């Protein structure tokens, strides 16, 4: 029996390209690599904005165990119903307590409890509750149940992401960034055993502007008018990290970037 776990964390699933890549590529990757658990950010699944119930079902069917999100989770009108109903799709925990849904979950799979915490940054984003205070509070709470803890920090600013990772180093198994749709090359194991990367990247079209049609992004920049971004329908890729974990200590042994 293996003494190690493999957990796959995927960058923001973006529109048609991202959903197509996920459904075509993820099941075979899970099987080939014997992945034990999959976490993916799904806030852009619905044509780049929000996530519908149908998107949720498709993402789950592809093999994702827990879906995290960020500021775009509120784009679909009836999202509150889905968030309140399911315990495997999250909104950032540092939104007000009165917000629909939950910001963390503990899921048991094959006899192992996996905790997932979802947070959102505040630098260059909407000002909500303190992600550092909320992050420490939730990690300390779930440590009473499991020490296998994964944090998706949906944030703009690398400094904010790195700072949170060092705050949680040794308590969280991994702290990973999402939101920018651009995969960073700074993956590493922090001094106390927490795996970290500033941004997982995108599950979507790489040869476009952060997963959206390049012509729309160019027009917006040239005119400075509020041109609505449109999700690309070009060939998609899956990006993220594969983390190897010691089953006993729950510490990360390695972290590897992937692009499928």
Number of domains: 1
Structural class: alpha/beta
Taking all Cα atoms into account, the compactness measure Rg is 17 Å
Count of helix runs: 6
The CATH H-level homologous superfamily: Metallo-dependent phosphatases
Shape: globular
Q: Give a count of the beta strands, DSSP E runs of length 2 or more.
A: 13
Looking at the overall shape, the CATH architecture is: 4-Layer Sandwich
What string gives the helices and strands in order?
A: EEHEHEHEEHEHEEEEHEE
- In what range is the share of β-strand residues? 25-35%
* Arithmetic mean pLDDT: 93
- Largest sheet, if any? 6 strands, mixed
CATH topology: Purple Acid Phosphatase, chain A, domain 2
Fraction of helical residues: 25-40%
